[in-house]
């Protein structure tokens, strides 16, 4: 009955009564939340009184990270390292994506899911690859996010080994009573997904545009957040504190790139899939009811590694580097290639540059 | 202790009523229980039990919130004409308007509460406990102005009821400034709520500077619509002295407001269709549906209702006829509720920023929670009106033994 991050916690009477006693304690502590919401254990009380991330003292931060590690151990039976490594001075991260190389295989999508501990069910994917026809160009009204992409290796022709997009919104039984057969509203999805094992990318006469957080210099999502739960770090990465976000989803309305995703249900992450190398502002497991997004793999890039999507890309379409370093690859691209940014007219100033390398 | 006596008297007033009163309260009670049960399910499973998803991340809850902010604002704005035209029972207009505003604001706050993913972190919105992103985020502005407006109305209503109860004349030096502050506050809550949408560049349907004026114009229709009906009921059952001319005057003002509302809507349609950019798709969702969206099925009846109400209120004969006047009020409610609710939220978010169309329709949970919240609001309003009735009553009868005075503003 609490809003914490335990999976499928069942309500039973004893639990309910125990929680009620604790919640009475919580109310005595002056909490202005309805009793029903404050199924408070000590952990929840600690959570409740946690300060804003940017105001924590070094000692408080240390104990917070230790607490999160303990929680992870308890929940996943796996020891994890939750770091809060700050931005390196003199670094401003930038990303390049070569549209002339991308083949739309979605390997980046799934490498990202693995690296960043995304919920497997409901499936949350930070990268969305859109398929456009060359005839029409980048026209979002014509984009197909649900095209079929085959998997790799021996089973490439096997439909069970596909690398799918997150499915279109699935509704539960109750909702289906009202919205008869929601999936049928996705003609594109049905058509492409039933194409079977023969699906191939790139499809002739089509091109692919993977879209994730554009790490705007002028991020509309940060501007609208009513509680400062999201901000731009000194190295340019827009981050979210999952322990501070109230889940109002104003940032999702404000993001022009569909980069923000909400945990509509308890995120499901099997223990064996947990990536133990975590960052507080990045890939640590999320809670139900909060928003999440791409962080340029903050847990990797602040340690001098490439984001997972850059590493996995089989065609080298993804580039990453320090915009302040005149000798970086990303600077070379900006200075020598034909570069475009999405929705230029909104003046969000993305640090995610699409370019034509060929 | 006069306050204790006042509270005791309130309870005894609430416990007295005829069978219609009890049937009404029981009806609301059932809906409230059903809504709480549905919300409990939502707490257990998360917002997955709604039909909202990443593609359409706001829905029925926020639509209702937006509509009710309008009701809360307009109820008090009616004080302006009441003052200018010297309607006799201005105190009653103030009192009823502010009580309606309180009830609407409670509903607004509840709709926001049920919409957010982490209601346990609500306090992050407030200073000291949290870290409001003020003045940058319009939502933090909304929290501020809605809270101030709520407190202001609560103070005015409590003060009027309490002085009425104790038989003292209220102090005009306290009351009038408060009422005068509440009028611009009413305008500000609705403007800020409009700006909340207006400021989002990612959603061209909302990013139109005509939005705030349209919000105010439509609010000036929907708020008085409920008060007109209420005045008639109270005139009948409680002997409230409000003249037919005052009601006709309100109707006339509503006709002007509706004209402005329709004109602004027309201006928006002209701009969208004549410029015919890729942003036209959102207007097409509103008017004709795109890729299976259904909101247009309500748009046309709502538009027809608004136009009909405009004509009914424009023609003096129908404006002064109680049947057509009340019909007009109901039509306005339907028209504005659709326009400011789903007709605003859904086309704003469909298709999403990457062109995907997700057909949103509220789930059963959303309907039940919304019905519960409306019932809580109606119950609060009913209880407030019941306390106010003996004070407003012009003939000297009162069930709770309250001494009455008839102060004039």
Structural summary, described in words:
The complex is a heterodimer of chains A (358) and B (409). Chain A has 358 residues and is an alpha+beta fold. Chain A folds into two domains: 1-49, no CATH class; 57-147 and 201-358, 2-Layer Sandwich (Alpha-Beta Plaits), CATH 3.30.70. Chain A is 26% helix and 13% strand. In chain A, a hairpin with a 5-residue loop joins β5 (230-232) and β6 (238-240). The longest helix of chain A has 19 residues, at 58-76. The radius of gyration of chain A is 22 Å and the shape is globular. In chain B, 72% of the residues lie in helices and 0% in strands. In chain B, α3 (60-77) runs antiparallel to α5 (90-115) and α11 packs antiparallel against α13 (322-340). The longest helix of chain B has 32 residues, at 244-275. Chains A and B meet through α5, α7, α8 and β7 of A and α2 and α6 of B.
Can you count the helices of chain A? 11
Q: What is the level-2 CATH architecture name of chain B?
A: Up-down Bundle
Average pLDDT number of chain B: 90
Largest interface pair = A-B, 68 and 64 residues
Q: How large a portion of the residues of chain B is in β-strands, by DSSP E? A: under 5%
Number of strands of chain B: 0
Could you state the CATH homologous superfamily of chain B? Formate dehydrogenase/DMSO reductase domain
Terminal Cα span of chain A = 55 Å
* Quaternary structure annotation: heterodimer
Topology:
The complex is a heterodimer of chains A (358) and B (409).
Chain A: H1 13-28, H2 42-49, H3 58-76, E1 81-83, E2 93-98, H4 107-115, E3 128-133, H5 173-178, H6 187-193, E4 206-211, H7 220-224, E5 230-232, E6 238-240, H8 250-254, E7 261-262, E8 277-279, E9 291-292, H9 298-301, H10 308-312, E10 318-322, H11 329-336, E11 338-340, E12 352-356
Parallel strand pairs in A: 1-8, 2-12
Antiparallel strand pairs in A: 2-10, 3-4, 5-6, 7-9, 11-12
Chain B: H1 2-14, H2 19-45, H3 60-77, H4 79-84, H5 90-115, H6 138-166, H7 172-198, H8 211-238, H9 244-275, H10 280-287, H11 296-314, H12 316-320, H13 322-340, H14 342-349, H15 364-392
Helix pairs in contact in B: 2-15, 3-5, 3-7, 3-8, 3-14, 5-6, 5-15, 6-7, 7-8, 8-9, 8-13, 9-11, 10-11, 10-14, 11-13, 13-14
